[in-house]
Amino acid sequence: MLRGYYTAASGMMAQQRRQDTLSNNIANAQTPGYKQDQATIRAFPELLLQRMDGTTLPTTRNFRLRNGQNIGSINTGAYVQETIPDFAQGGLRETGMTTDMALVNGMLPDADGGLFFVVQNADGEERYTRNGNFTVDGQGFLTTNQGYYVRNQAGEPIFTDGQAFTMTDDGVIQVGDQQIPLAVSYTANTNDLIKDGQDLFALTGEDGEMVDARAMDNLSFAVQQRHLENSNVDTVQTMTEMMQAYRLYETNQRVLQAYDQSMDHAVNRIARLT
């Protein structure tokens, strides 16, 4: 009976974590370039049940030989193993702002590949984002709304000197007589990236690698100025999944209450009669 307690409780905890993930997706449905998270739920390792038995041998000491019979396997609950970002391209919307940029996937050589803007966080480390809601700071540098420098192809902050600029479809910023290629990095496996807050991604794992997208002949992309990429959150589908998670949570809650009532009968009523 105690195994049933743990199974129902683990189901409630898994649905609660799933609900938290879906709620975060809904909260960021209007965040430019946001990539929704998907919770992966799996069962705990299976346990093999065995019935213990024995056979009494016809000896003077009635020696008993133990043996067992396999009954079958059983799972002891479920848990959220991890949350994985979905890097599908979001739709574009026009904003009219010169500093807004949207990265549009063209031909990608790998099914799990992805393109990203390159920024520099507060510690000077390289990070990646799909949120092109940029601005120009007081010193004339192109930055994110959090103040992180946007890098050019040479890995340096982009200095606009506060001047108006235009951008070509291949991501080259034209400021006066200067042409500054915007840094666009590509990874063959987006699973090597983890969320690092503020719509940023960090590269993790020894096998992960980011390369200059312009150095690849079999890859194409475009940068749309005065546009932003919407999040890829489907609000209707997400709300449906939230209702489903809520109902599954309630189901496990009822099972837990049923076990609690059975335990109450076993401890307080049956024991009283005996």
Automatic annotation (TrEMBL):
<dbReference type="GO" id="GO:0009425">
    <property type="term" value="C:bacterial-type flagellum basal body"/>
</dbReference>
<dbReference type="Pfam" id="PF00460">
    <property type="entry name" value="Flg_bb_rod"/>
</dbReference>
<comment type="similarity">
    <text>Belongs to the flagella basal body rod proteins family.</text>
</comment>
<dbReference type="Pfam" id="PF06429">
    <property type="entry name" value="Flg_bbr_C"/>
</dbReference>
<keyword id="KW-0975">Bacterial flagellum</keyword>
<feature type="domain" description="Flagellar hook protein FlgE/F/G-like D1">
    <location>
        <begin position="113"/>
        <end position="175"/>
    </location>
</feature>
<keyword id="KW-0966">Cell projection</keyword>
<dbReference type="InterPro" id="IPR010930">
    <property type="entry name" value="Flg_bb/hook_C_dom"/>
</dbReference>
<keyword id="KW-0969">Cilium</keyword>
<protein>
    <submittedName>
        <fullName>Flagellar hook-basal body protein</fullName>
    </submittedName>
</protein>
<feature type="domain" description="Flagellar basal-body/hook protein C-terminal">
    <location>
        <begin position="224"/>
        <end position="267"/>
    </location>
</feature>
<keyword id="KW-0282">Flagellum</keyword>
<dbReference type="GO" id="GO:0071978">
    <property type="term" value="P:bacterial-type flagellum-dependent swarming motility"/>
</dbReference>
<dbReference type="InterPro" id="IPR020013">
    <property type="entry name" value="Flagellar_FlgE/F/G"/>
</dbReference>
<feature type="domain" description="Flagellar basal body rod protein N-terminal">
    <location>
        <begin position="6"/>
        <end position="35"/>
    </location>
</feature>
<dbReference type="InterPro" id="IPR037925">
    <property type="entry name" value="FlgE/F/G-like"/>
</dbReference>
<dbReference type="InterPro" id="IPR001444">
    <property type="entry name" value="Flag_bb_rod_N"/>
</dbReference>
<dbReference type="InterPro" id="IPR053967">
    <property type="entry name" value="LlgE_F_G-like_D1"/>
</dbReference>
<dbReference type="Pfam" id="PF22692">
    <property type="entry name" value="LlgE_F_G_D1"/>
</dbReference>
